[in-house]
């Protein structure tokens, strides 16, 4: 049930009749009425008429009988107040509907969502938090809409650092050691320290890279153990976070190594690569530096090695050609925006990314500390993600509440902005927080147990009942808007507003002290709210607790 769409469809022909051309009614939720349209203001200059006059004519022509009352306000807004009967009928239609009025898409797409992407032999840090949480929420939203979602966890599991790591593994445990690795961060630091301090080790590490790339069996086996140990660590974090990434979603950079020479050959044959200081680079149009000079995308380095651009191009080609993707979403930090725009431009020029396939970089800001700077550990180092989770869980009354606090704090604001990691604020049970939603849901579950009896048909006898009923009908536009704009905060904001509307209803419209049809009606409103909160929280990856 989407009242915005219903009113839009009723106003659209009226606007066209007045304007003489198709006109977007732009119906929006409004604090001045249930909904509002400001389209008349945009038509004033085109038609050379006062906007209030245009709005009044549209109101006279609109077929809104039985649906809403319309009034002209301000400079030319149309204020729309829907009828109580429409709210009640719409809520009745939700009874027994598992999808709560949100229909599946009629045009399902195959969508690849690339998110998380940690590096092997390094523990996940706070920088991976946002990609993992935002990407998983988008995957859940798109999946529930009926799209075929392919989750891809693009692991950094290849490249020159692995010569150093494998050689350190051999120097500490030998080729036949148990290679338990222990703390991955400590292991990586020790390998780096040995590499920096010992010239002989550096030489062996470089030779080990050659052995890895050439397929030496012993070297490859040690590399596989590094990858396996790291993947186990990643999966443990995903399990704690309650995200839907699994072992079947791992897609390491190593999987594209055999394709990289072909990438270079095909791009060269199409005239898309030029030599620059020994490297082979693409110079897609429109990308220039501060000095106005073209910015290169280095596909093959001067030493013959391949960088991230080659791997990303090979991965994109594979996703379109072999996976048959209709849409590609890359949930990666904002600093990589230009890189991906260049990747998309080169892929389009090569014919690997046809116009029928869309590619988007889903950028996001940083997690900041209380000082407004990048969140670091007390030692000034990048903060481990596990430590961040531990802090929130230790401070919360239950692990699910701590994790909900972290996830909701990330998802409740526009992903493009930075946010401050403030555990006290995140764990608050009032305000715009994850625990606030959890407590609202638990309160309704407790209410249902105490009340007993069966919910009945909704009746609107009080303003708070009407406000809650109207809020319940906002799930469909919230889900659709969040998925289309790739902005989970739209759904998070809707859920917070719904929980707030229920809180007012709970205070103003007693359930347990009411009787008969009024009691049954209020139980029905509570049940609708619980179902909607539960579904919305699931789509954000936040656990709904029946008891707290």
Q: What this model shows, in words?
A:
The protein is α/β, with parallel strands linked by helices and 548 residues long. The protein is 52% helix and 9% strand. It has helices at residues 3-19, 39-47, 51-61, 84-94, 129-145, 161-173, 184-197, 199-214, 217-241, 260-269, 308-321, 337-350, 385-395, 399-411, 423-426, 434-451, 463-472, 475-485, 489-508, 516-540, and strands at 27-29, 35-37, 68-73, 77-82, 110-114, 148-152, 274-276, 279-282, 297-300, 327-330, 358-361, 367-368, 419-420. The chain has a 4-stranded antiparallel sheet with strand order 1-2-4-3. α5 crosses α18 (475-485), α6 crosses α7 (184-197) and α19 (489-508) packs antiparallel against α20 (516-540).
Comma- or semicolon-separated keywords:
single chain, 548 residues, alpha/beta, four-stranded antiparallel sheet, four-stranded parallel sheet, 13 strands
Radius of gyration: 28 Å
Oligomerization status of the protein chains:
single chain
Stretches where pLDDT is under 50 for at least 5 consecutive residues are: none
Spatial shape:
globular
Main sheet summary: 4 strands, antiparallel
Mean pLDDT: 93
Number of helices: 20
Amino- and carboxy-terminal Cα gap: 32 Å
Which class of secondary structure composition applies to the elements? alpha/beta
Helix content, binned percent = 40-55%
